[in-house]
Design brief:
- With 269 residues, the protein is of the alpha+beta class.
- It is 24% helix and 41% strand.
- The model has no long low-confidence stretch (mean pLDDT 94).
């Protein structure tokens, strides 16, 4: 069973607002489509097969009825009840979602799915996949969900190239890592590392956010976990939002900047 980073979900009340903001920074994004049965819609920004999804609610009554799709229950909770936009959750791509569901249940996780999913693209084509949502109640940090696409990776790359969604940025930026802020660095690294059997880096201090950090080497995009060591950007996010993804690191941008955009922190290197 293989695991790769698939995408980061950012909640936005208006996903289309991300497109011009990212364009100003040299990052290409485009309208994605609608999830009619879930009451949501999105905009997308691709870096190869790894991408950032900006997800919003199109039909509140449909979205509020969802129970099995835990991403939709999460966006309803965060946008409707807590008015909190920004980075929210990652999806991990797998080639064995049925076997994974059995494994996670055996390990004591509450498992929702696999569930069928589809999106109607702007050109009318339907894209299909399966989703799996593991949960356990002993952590404030929301676990990733898993996705298995109907089409193989090779075909998806060809489709994305045909649509002009890959290699459309200014320069050649790479989606290098997603940063999480957590209370207990060691606990998070051990739990997530064991869940996906990932190699762990040595600890280092990131002075720009004033935090102790370690990396998990997930194919596609690295996962970065950070615990504040005092006042600073990491501490501010942890206090205001709790444990959550909060930092998007792009390399190859020709810049050296850390800034806030779309209710998240972005680092261009």
């Amino acid at each position: 069973m293989q695991f790769s980073f698939d995408h980061l979900v950012c909640f936005l009340k208006k996903p289309e607002d991300a497109i011009p903001l990212l364009k100003q920074r040299g990052i290409h994004a485009a309208n994605g489509g609608r999830h009619e049965s879930w009451g949501t819609y999105n905009s997308l920004s691709y870096f190869g097969l790894s991408y950032i999804e900006f997800l919003g609610i199109e039909n509140q009554s449909i979205a509020a009825k969802q129970e099995e799709n835990r991403l939709i229950t999460q966006i309803v909770e965060q946008l409707s009840k807590r008015d909190r936009e920004g980075p929210a959750r990652i999806a991990i791509r797998t080639d064995g979602i049925e076997q994974l569901a059995v494994k996670l249940k055996a390990e004591g996780y509450t498992v929702y799915g696999p569930l069928p999913g589809e999106r109607v693209r702007a050109d009318g084509q339907v894209i299909s996949w399966s989703l799996l949502f593991p949960e356990n109640g002993d952590s404030e940090l929301t676990l990733p969900f898993f996705i298995q696409w109907e089409k193989p990776d090779e075909q998806r790359i060809l489709d994305l190239e045909e649509q002009g969604l890959i290699n459309s940025h200014t320069g050649n930026p790479k989606f290098e890592s997603v940063g999480y802020v957590v209370h207990n660095l060691e606990e998070a690294i051990i739990k997530w590392g064991n869940l996906f059997n990932l190699k762990r880096s040595e600890e280092f201090v990131d002075l720009t956010i004033n935090a102790r950090c370690r990396k998990l080497e997930l194919p596609g995009v690295t996962l970065l976990f950070c615990t504040p060591v005092g006042e600073g950007l990491a501490a501010k996010v942890l206090k205001e939002k709790g444990e959550t993804p909060f930092l998007i690191n792009l390399t190859g941008t020709g810049q050296n900047r850390l800034f806030e955009m779309l209710n998240g922190l972005w680092r261009f290197q």
